[in-house]
Amino acid sequence: MKLNILHEDNDITVAVKPCGVPTQPDKTNSESMVSMLKLRIYEKENRKEEPYLVPIHRLDRPVGGVMVFAKTPEAAANLSKQSEDGSMMKYYQAILTGELPNDQGVLKDYLLHDTKDNVTKVVDKDTPGAKYSELEYEVLDVMDTDEGTLTYVLVELITGRHHQIRAQFAKRKCGIWGDTKYNPKFQKTKKKYKEIGLHASRLEFDHPTTGEHMVFKHEPEGGAFAILDLDEF
């Protein structure tokens, strides 16, 4: 698989994860972003030992988009802090089935990750293990299609919880297009969706060594996004 590298230096690699590819090795033994990037570094630099490389954040397997990986423990610590304190800014584009009540808004929930079934649920804030979750959204377009009403939104992720965007919009009965895990419109289908209508389109952070503010963008292609004229936005 040809990797789309947006930036690389001694401290970080910024790359676009394709839909259907896991961030890290999993039980399916599929090629992952980490394994492919490590192999790339190994071959490019003629390494004799396995290179250090860790993802600072994760994208679900059916979600594509921009990711940053640290190539040193020091860079990992710095970027992880930025991710945790909110100074690393993450933006997504999403296609929802249904229509939201407002053109823009903030979704605030408490989420609980059920590790047994690997699903995230919106729960009461007093639920043991529940984590506060927040995102902001702006509606870019609403379309009437053969599949019903679709809403195109820009999302800024304020907190980074497991399946957060998917779970929070599903709770509002506006699930992500193609999401067989959270969207009832797709749960009964036997079709396997390698991608869903969710894409990490913009990532901002300060370089862990130089302090330079860096911005990376990547527009989604194919799937639900194929019906949009993204040049308009």
In terms of topology, how is this protein built?
Blueprint: E1 4-8, E2 12-17, H1 33-44, E3 54-55, E4 64-70, H2 73-85, E5 89-97, E6 104-114, E7 119-123, E8 131-145, E9 148-157, H3 164-171, H4 184-187, E10 198-206, E11 213-217
Parallel strand pairs: 4-10
Antiparallel strand pairs: 1-2, 2-4, 3-4, 5-9, 5-10, 6-7, 6-8, 8-9, 10-11
Summarize the structure.
16% of the residues lie in helices and 36% in strands. It contains four helices and eleven strands.
Mean pLDDT: 91
Number of strand elements: 11
Shape descriptor reads globular
Secondary structural class: alpha+beta
- Measured as a percent range, the helix fraction is 10-25%
Distance from first to last alpha carbon: 29 Å
SSE order, one letter for each helix or strand = EEHEEHEEEEEHHEE
The gyration radius over C-alpha positions equals 18 Å
Strand content: 35-45%
The major pleated sheet works out as: 11 strands, mixed
- Total helix count? 4
